[in-house]
Amino acid sequence: MKKMILLALLGALVVGVVSAQATATPAPIAPDTAGGLQFALEIVTPDVVNALAFSPDGSLLLTANQDTSVRLYSLADGEQVSESYEHFSFVKGAAFAESFAVTSGWDHTLIVWDTSDETLAVRSQITGYDAVIEHLAISPDGTRIAFGVGDGRVRVADAATGDVLFELPVGALRVTAVAYSPDGSQITVAGGFPASGALTYDATDGSVLASLAHPATVTSLAYAPDSLLLAVGGDDGSVTLWREGEQIASLEVNDWVTDVVFSPTAPILVAARQDGVMTVWDVTDPASPALIVGVVAADAAINDVAFQPDGTRLVTASADGSVRLWQVK
User: Under a CB-based contact definition with an 8 Å cutoff, are residues 44 and 16 in contact?
Assistant: First the structure.
């Protein structure tokens, strides 16, 4: 049954400053508050942001940009605190760990950044591939980096040395999504053109644990905080929910799903769409998800969406060049 999506229309945006409705200490985004989700802050960026990531303490935002730059922003005021142009093509992936960050690009390069003093300093690079590197994830303990190469394989490397420990095939020409479980025990990967579905691997040795038969090309993956529930978004406009390799539910999002993310603190799932709408779902009962609200977050496709680690704010990055933070009233 199709669900009616309530569109929360954007009001006038005040670029670079907190809107009058934003609060200094926003309430957690939860099933009983998410219906009041609203625009809070716009971060001014010079070009399209392809991917973003929060620092573990939630004070910084890392962006991977179409203009080949990597930028670091303070979440206190939305101001840029550091930038670098070490990549020489589009930067497509971004991830944050305790004292470092990682970005990937179409220059066939993975860069590890030292962010300990809120600046971007190159710590190391992983190079030597003959294809683009897009999607990536850092293990929860910060010791490994999983990154997808345009040859249809995900490499799992030692974060300190860059040495590749093992490879994970996705069964396709292109890697479209990579996700570590929060407990670090699993890596789920997906590929497209022409593959569908996703594969879950043991994060220790790379052995296959499960094959997830999503009915279309998978565009995004996300684990819930318990590491048991997994969301799989696809270009067919649906999100399937999986537990221990078994599908337990399917959500009709009604447009190409560009990203999915679980709240780190509440039973909330957000699915972003190609038309600029993000849909917010109550997954208190994962077998029976309920749509809470749909929010018009941008005028073009949402490239990435992420929760601040304390669960109080969401950030969206769109193909229209906007980076916007959202919170409840």
Answer: yes
Q: 27: closest CA among 314, 326, 312?
A: 312
Give me the mean pLDDT over the 272-294 stretch.
97
Distance of CA 69 to the CA centre of its chain: 18
Question: How many other C-beta atoms are found inside a 10 Å radius of the C-beta of residue 321?
Answer: 17
Please name the amino acid found at residue 98: E
Q: Which domains does the chain have, with CATH numbers?
A: 7-328 (2.130.10.10)
pTM of the model: 0.91
Tell me how crowded residue 258 is: count the other CB atoms within 10 A of its CB. Answer: 24
Using CA atoms, how far apart are residues 249 and 48, in angstroms rounded to an integer?
34
Angle at 81 (CA atoms; ends 77, 324), nearest 5 degrees:
45
Count CA within 13 A, CB hemisphere, residue 307: 27
Contacts of residue 1, Cβ cutoff 8 Å, sequence gap at least 6: none
Q: Tell me: the pLDDT tens digits for 215-257? A: 999 999 999 999 999 999 999 999 999 999 999 999 999 999 9
pLDDT tens column, 91-104? 999 999 998 999 99
